[in-house]
Amino acid sequence: MSDTSAVRPDVAPRPPIPEAAAPRGLRARLRGPLRPIGGGLALLRESTVAMIGAGLVGFWVVVALLAPWLAPFDPNAQFVPFAPPGAPHPEGGTFLLGADHLGRDILSRVIWGSRTVLFYAPVATGCAFAVGIVMGLLAGYKRGWVDDVLSRLSDIILSFPILVLYVVIISTFGASGINIVLAVTFASAPGIMRIVRGLVLDLRNRDYVAAAQTRGESTAWIMFVEILPNARGPLIVDACLRLGYTIITIGVLGFLGLGLPPPDPDWGGMVNQTRSMATFAPHMTIFPVIAISSLVLGFNLLADGIREISLKD
Amino acid sequence: MQDHATHEAPPGVRAVPDAEPVLEVAGLAVSYVTRAGEIPAVVDFDLTIRAGESVALVGESGCGKSTVANAVMRYMGRNGRIAAGAMRFKGRDMLAMSPDELRRLRGNEIAMVYQEPFAALNPSLTVGRQLSEVPAVHHGLSEAEALAKAAEILADVRLPDPERILAAYPHQLSGGQQQRVVIAMALLANPSLLLLDEPTTALDVTVEAGIVELIGEIKRKFGTAILFISHNLGLVREVCDRVAVMYSGEVVEEGAVEDVFTAMRHPYTRGLFGCIPVPAADKHARPLSAIRGQLPLPHERPRGCNFGPRCDLFHAGLCDAGPVPMRDAGDRDDAAGSSHRARCLRLDAIDPPARRRAARVAQTGAQTGDVVLEIEEMQKHYPVFDRSILAMLQGRSVRWVKANEALSFEARRGQTVAIVGESGCGKSTFAKVLMGLETATDGAIRFEGDDIAEAPVTGRPKEQVANLQMIFQNPNDTLNPSQTVGGQIARVIRKFGVERDGARIWARVYELLDLVKLPRDFAGRMPRQLSGGQKQRIGIARAFAGNPSVVVADEPVSALDVSVQAAVTQLLMDIQRDNDTTLLFISHDLSLVRYLADRVVVMYLGRIMEQGRTADVFEPPYHPYTEALLSAVPVADPSIEKTKIVLEGALPSPLDPPAGCPFATRCPRKLGPICDETRPPDHVRADGHRIACHIPLADLEAVRPVFREAPAPASAA
Fold it and tell me: Tell me, what DSSP letter sits at residue B475?
């Protein structure tokens, strides 16, 4: 469509458009929120790296969703301690990946463990982003003393070694799912805030923000409606990377014995409980380790791929 | 001072016709390989530049003019390639050269100057280091010799105090000084060919005038052949001997500047000239006429004439039959002198235009409406905190940037008031205070009777906010990229409570799209799917959505191509007239201001130097600054002759403005110490024409007009 042709007096008659109907019908509105996801998947095909990452992540998501049907046995039931991979199960079937020192089927525990990690990692990352985004928007948009206070606060938190921070928080408040979420939020939010603040410092000078200001929009509207959606690109990449880190964190906490309380399966906890026996029964340690690595690798590849695609155009 | 300040524009030194050709390009075709396939950016391009000659390439963005320059430099990126044609530099075949030979050629014989000087200089090295590198590397001079050579060349580009500049880092220089350094760097190797790609586009108009004069001097002094790329026809007329007009990858018209500019033959060239306002005429004397349609994409060029779909003289069966060759378009019969050619099959149907007269129509000035906006002694100062210990000990930790000082003017209903001045004059600060994004330090802004000077936008009543809206400069920035176009307009309607019901809001959105002459289905589009001109139209629709009584337009068309500029300007004026809206038009483009404004306010360093009806401001008596501004405007119309004034020195810091007249440090008409010490009084003339100057009014009245009708050249019968 040309620009100047629009002022031609002899311009072709416009296609008829219903005069007073909102442009989005019910169907369009229902499809609305899903459309970006569909478009996003189509875009992913442009990058092999992103497709491999999405494949790995997708695999674990499906496994977690279908855990009750995929797992051959009860993950907490004890059968044959130290059964090697392929050993027959007393009730029929095989221990495909063997059994641990308490005789629990490792395959079932890895499958059920994916539920734990794929629940707590996104929830913890989501909380960290919610806090970090609000702090970053406030600091970057309001500037002045708000920025000073929030930035110094985040500097203080970032100056602690993260692992020490986790250990202190969890050992003070006790090992539980909610405390893991709180610890991850506390430790990651400052980093997210830094990223958001940087993006906002650039976006706040755009003319469309000035346009919103000149029509008297509230600070919240400008921050969340005018600015935040335009910062989404870098934030999506960062979210993928951070999901990977959070999975490692949950694993590490489990490994340190600060993870989710037993007996529910938790990949980090499985590594921790079996590592001393890894010399003579390595299968008990190796499979949970592979599970953690593949999921983290999936998120990292996905982040790389999304960044590659976003740089293309 | 006076004598040499107002000499006539020197006619370009004509190159000897049989001088050795420096660059010969024949049948050049350049393509870029992209994901979408091979895109032919330039097709069949011919050009010859002789020593001492300057040739201009003009055209709008996307016409391929920069591609030609990059092809000459053989610097086309990884995906560009020369698909066909021949290129000879001083008789040597450039296409057969090895990369090593090319590199030597680029360093020694061909130099290029780009648009943005600050991007061409390395910020972490001193100017001296960067300049002495060229003679040290290419000519093997010692460090001391190289520095001496650098100092010499800086004097050649008219930079005062070369020693200081050599020791300075790029950020310590102004934009104009940086561009002079870049040109000096290009001249160091004493090149035979200088490519200038929009060298003044990023600079202020008075700075531009200085660079234009410098380019003329270089041509005379060094005999360098110059290829000057620009979209500004006025500049081309001042700088060049010959011109090639490009459209969609090919040259459509070429010839000597005076031939093409007085007797343009190709319909596109004529269209371009119809799009630009001339500073000697207003909207009543000569309305702008936009070119309809849009530049075709390189892979969607029509069959036959590329300009066919936009041309009024298009003849089906003739113009779309096949490739159109260049034809002789000379109107002079002496066969030897005519090199004027155009790519049009219907040249015979086009008469050379009659010499246009800058008709002067008495302007009404639209003084009739009520006063809507009254600014009285408005002041805006920004604090600058100096946190050094020394400053604290001396008790000088806060200093003030005086962005606006004692602004007083008024705007009436339906009037267009232009605020002009160069960057840093405080015009954007004023807009911010008016819109309530900042609050004034002192003084009053009365908007329909209410003082809003100290009310931030969040503290103003909704009706007041709706009544005072703004159009922004940058088309790529004015719309939120993550919201639909319709949604952004609808938000304004909802916010200001113009309509409340969903269906009625959308009906109003469609009405507004009709108003800015865009199709209604644009409502569902995202901003990235729109062209620059279309985005700017949406920006206009959004500003008018709340039925405002005053609209502030901050350089609304300066980022658009000329043909689009004309259409958007016309649209803005039509909507303003139909709604009886007051328009505050902030601009640095005096031609455009002359074209559309009823009143003009000239600002310099935060103060108003002159204000009055447009016709009064554009004719003597002028404030000396207004005179300098006007004379810096490049004029494309050959029937106009103008005074040439180049301002010396740089803009003083607003932290420490001169105590007397702010313009005293650069004024070519400065009287003496009184200008430095005492604030100038306002000379008040009829119709609110005020000039703040110490020079007696009678002397200012005696100044020659900047724009004069040129005596008819003997050759044009």
Answer: T
User: Would you say residue B363 has pLDDT above 60?
Assistant: no
What is the arithmetic mean of pLDDT over A225-231? Answer: 92
In the stretch 565-584 of chain B, residues with CB closer than 8 A to chain A read 567, 570-571
What is the phi/psi pair of residue B553, to 5°? -115, 115
Q: Are strands B371-385 and B7-8 parallel, antiparallel or unpaired?
A: unpaired
Q: How many whole angstroms separate alpha carbon B686 and alpha carbon B707?
A: 22
B368: pLDDT confidence band, cut at 50, 70 and 90? low
Instruction: Report chain A's mean pLDDT, rounded to a whole number.
Output: 81
CA distance, residue A153 to nearest chain B CA (Å): 23
**Contact by Cβ (8 Å): B591, B278:** yes
Nearest to B379 by CA among B444, B456, B427: B444
Instruction: Quote the CA–CA distance of A119 and A117 in Å, as a whole number.
Output: 5
User: In which band, very low, low, confident or very high, does the pLDDT at B32 lie, cut at 50, 70 and 90?
Assistant: confident
Interface test with A, best of B35, B452, B468, B482 (most A CBs within 10 A): B482
pLDDT confidence tier of residue A31, bands split at 50, 70 and 90: very low
Q: With contacts defined as CB-CB under 8 Å, which chain B residues touch A20?
A: 503-504, 506-507
In this structure, are strands B582-587 and B416-420 parallel, antiparallel, or unpaired? parallel
Distance, CA of B39 to CA of B699 (rounded, Å): 60
Paired sense of beta strands B242-247 and B250-256, if any: antiparallel
What average pLDDT does the structure give for chain B?
Answer: 82
Contact assignment for B480 to A230 by CB distance below 8 Å: yes
Which residues on neighbouring strands pair with residue B31, listed in sequence order? B40, B81
Is the dihedral angle over the CA atoms A164, A166, A171, A173 positive or is it negative? positive
Query: How many helices (H) and strands (E) would you count in chain A?
Result: 13, 2
Does residue B397 carry a pLDDT above 80?
A: no
Residue B713 has a pLDDT of: 54
User: For residue A96, what is the DSSP state?
Assistant: T
Number of residues assigned to chain B: 717
Q: What is the pLDDT of residue A14?
A: 38
* DSSP 8-state class, residue B637: -
Of the candidates B293, B470, B523, the beta carbon closest to that of A214 is on B470
A21 to B503: CB separation less than 8 angstroms, yes or no: yes
The Cα of A12 is separated from the nearest Cα of chain B by a number of Å equal to: 10
User: Which pair of tokens denotes residue B690?
Assistant: 């005020």
CB-CB neighbors (< 8 A) of B486 in chain A: 23
Which residues of chain A form beta strands (DSSP E)?
87-88, 94-95
